[in-house]
């Protein structure tokens, strides 16, 4: 029972890797609370967006085994 | 309607891409293209764009669809690189083909403004051997207001 976390942009540096697996917990808030304090604080930032299985979510979303959660900082493309 | 939205992880030849796009569009009176390349200067040795596959290409395709709805076009081409690039290397190519030039200019401009500010890419550059992330430019966000 696991979740995959994906860290984009500068969040990858803070997390130390582009992705990691964590044990399944029922909510995004619980996922974030289980991470290192500095990383958790960055992920709660007002400009960080979340996607679950490739779909953007607002605020909270129910999580299930095998879900992929992406943490998306402001984009800087082009 | 000709054209496509492409996300490439390898270098591309913009002149060849434009030639192939144009050859299928004899009915278009005007084709406007924009090429963005890695800027030389400031000691920049390389630029890296990263993307998130589940979001990046679908959003580019959705943007291309919006552009086609907004202007009367014969073709639209959107190519965006991901990965490591060096100064002078192409990053993005947008081309819009229309019967008359005004629609082509406006469509290419709109597509670029939205690619810059809304597409799911994250950019970092290497200076003196050190990578650093590039934060979004306020100007890119302000450019969007032109289309509201």
Characterization of the model:
- The complex is a heterodimer of chains A (78) and B (148).
- Chain A is α+β, with helices and mostly antiparallel strands and 78 residues long.
- Chain A has a single domain (2-72), classed as Roll (Ubiquitin-like (UB roll)).
- Chain A has 3 helices and 5 strands.
- Chain A has a 5-stranded mixed β-sheet.
- Chain A starts with a strand and ends in a 6-residue tail after the last strand.
- Chain B starts with a strand and ends with a helix.
- Chain B contains 4 helices and 8 strands; from the N terminus they run βαββαβββαββα.
- The longest helix of chain B is centred in the middle third of the chain and has 18 residues, at 53-70.
- By secondary structure, chain B is α+β, with helices and mostly antiparallel strands.
- The relative contact order of chain B is 0.24.
- The model of chain B has no long low-confidence stretch (mean pLDDT 93).
- The chains are: A alpha+beta (78), B alpha+beta (148).
- At the A-B interface, helix 1 and strand 5 of A face helix 2, helix 3 and strand 7 of B.
Quick overview:
The complex is a heterodimer of chains A (78) and B (148). Chain A is α+β, with helices and mostly antiparallel strands and 78 residues long.
The whole-angstrom Rg of chain A is 12 Å
Report the CATH architecture of chain A. Roll
Could you give me the name of the CATH homologous superfamily of chain B? Molybdopterin biosynthesis MoaE subunit
Query: Which structural category fits the helices and strands of chain B?
Result: alpha+beta
Task: Identify the CATH class of chain A.
Answer: Alpha Beta
User: How would you classify the helix and strand content of chain A by structural class?
Assistant: alpha+beta
**Share of residues in strands of chain B:** 35-45%
Q: Averaging pLDDT over every residue of chain B, what do you get?
A: 93
């Amino acid at each position: 029972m696991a979740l995959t976390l994906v860290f984009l942009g500068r969040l990858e540096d803070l997390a130390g890797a582009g992705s990691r697996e964590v044990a399944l917990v029922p909510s995004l808030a619980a996922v974030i609370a289980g991470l290192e304090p500095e990383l958790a604080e960055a992920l709660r930032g007002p400009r960080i967006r979340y996607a679950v299985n490739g779909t953007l979510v607002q605020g909270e979303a129910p999580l299930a085994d095998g879900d992929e959660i992406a943490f998306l900082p402001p984009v800087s493309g082009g | 309607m000709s054209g496509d939205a492409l996300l490439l992880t390898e270098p591309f030849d913009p002149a060849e891409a434009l030639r192939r796009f144009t050859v299928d569009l004899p009915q278009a009176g005007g084709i406007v293209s924009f090429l963005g390349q890695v800027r030389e200067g400031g000691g920049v040795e390389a630029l890296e764009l990263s993307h998130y596959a589940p979001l990046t290409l679908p959003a580019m395709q959705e943007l291309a669809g919006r552009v086609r709805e907004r202007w009367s076009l014969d073709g639209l081409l959107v190519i965006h690189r991901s990965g490591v690039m060096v100064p002078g290397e192409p990053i993005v190519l947008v081309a819009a083909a229309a019967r008359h030039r005004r629609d082509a200019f406006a469509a290419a401009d709109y597509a670029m403004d939205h690619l810059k500010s809304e597409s799911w890419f994250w950019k970092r550059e290497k200076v003196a051997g050190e990578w650093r992330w590039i934060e979004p430019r306020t100007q890119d966000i302000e450019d969007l207001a032109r289309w509201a």
